[in-house]
Write a structure and sequence with these properties.
single chain, alpha/beta, Rossmann fold, seven-stranded mixed beta sheet, 14 helices, 46% helix, globular
Length: 307
């Protein structure tokens, strides 16, 4: 099976020096996994649109122009920060474990915005934007800008390092905190610590919005397995399979909500994609998940808005 081969390769790479650079090389040369295709861009632009809609719905008194935003999980392409900037956000920090972003990736992001706008694909997502900022983005698509110049243009500061220690030393306050399919890559103990720190960083009246992908990510490229394949392994077996390049915590939706609640968050909205119980039944779920119902185990995606 393809997923086993990838798991073995990533596990091996995780023990090597310069592991992130090696993994990036294989992704570029082998799978093309870090290229910005239409599917990935569509997902990210959809998340960005949803974040702002949830912001407006639950925190309408927060002015975008003066709000400070924190994103967990910068990734390769600053799609969400660019979208926020086009819609009036002036100050945004984005935190990631590794410095994935580059000047080339920034230009690629700008090009994809312009390309989708020219084809008419962007309009359903875009709405009203700052025309001056759009003109600047068009110029950025034509010529590669120095990384710091592009980040300065969109009001983005990138923070690199372990999120737990990085956030612990922060004294800023943020009106809005968001993440896009990032929480599932953080093991439970550090995730609890991070969300606890986030609670302390939220300004009075501020809020957070998080999209979470609960599916087995190996199934994203190996269609021979279901979204629930990783649920068949014991905790010990999974620790042996999992890697620190792209870890998966396997937490289920009710467990995420329990973490938010126990940390003192008020969950103001939560919605899930229920998944398929029929597909779940194709997997012999390990007894460590015995306390959860089939419906709870089958949830594949969700978002939570909390303050």
């Amino acid at each position: 099976m393809i997923w086993i081969a990838k798991a073995v390769v990533q596990k091996g790479i995780s023990f090597l020096p310069f592991k992130t650079h090696i993994n990036q090389f294989f992704q570029r040369r082998g799978t093309g996994a870090i290229s910005l295709d239409d599917q990935h861009f569509g997902w990210k632009i959809g998340h960005a649109q949803d974040h702002l809609a949830l912001w407006q719905k639950h925190f309408p008194n927060l002015d975008r122009s003066s709000a400070k935003v924190l994103e967990l999980g910068t990734g390769w392409y600053p799609i969400v920060p660019v979208y926020f900037w086009l819609h009036g956000v002036n100050s945004m920090d984005s935190l990631d474990l590794y410095p994935w972003i580059s000047a080339e990736h920034c230009q690629t992001t700008a090009k994809k915005f312009v390309e989708w706008h020219s084809s008419g694909q962007l309009q359903p997502f875009l709405g009203g934007v700052d025309t001056d900022r759009w003109s600047k983005l068009e110029q950025a698509a034509k010529k590669t800008m120095p990384l710091e110049s592009f980040l300065s243009m969109i009001g983005l500061r990138t923070l690199v390092g372990d999120a737990t220690s990085k956030i612990a030393g922060m004294h800023e306050s943020y009106e809005f905190i968001c993440s896009n399919n990032t929480l599932e890559h953080i093991l439970e103990a550090p995730l609890i610590a991070i969300l606890k720190h986030f609670k302390g960083l939220l300004s009075h009246g501020g809020g957070s919005s998080h999209f979470i992908d609960l599916s087995d990510h190996f199934g994203h490229f190996d269609r021979s397995i279901t979204a629930y394949n990783f649920l068949k392994f014991s905790p010990l077996q999974w620790r042996l399979i999992d890697n620190d390049i792209q870890p998966q915590n396997r937490l289920r939706w009710v467990q995420y909500l329990d973490i938010f609640t126990k940390l003192g968050y008020r969950v103001v909205e939560a919605k899930v994609r229920p998944g398929s119980v029929d597909d779940l039944r194709k997997v012999k779920v390990h007894s460590s998940f015995a306390g959860l119902s089939e419906a709870e185990l089958a949830i594949t995606h969700g978002y939570v808005v909390a303050c």
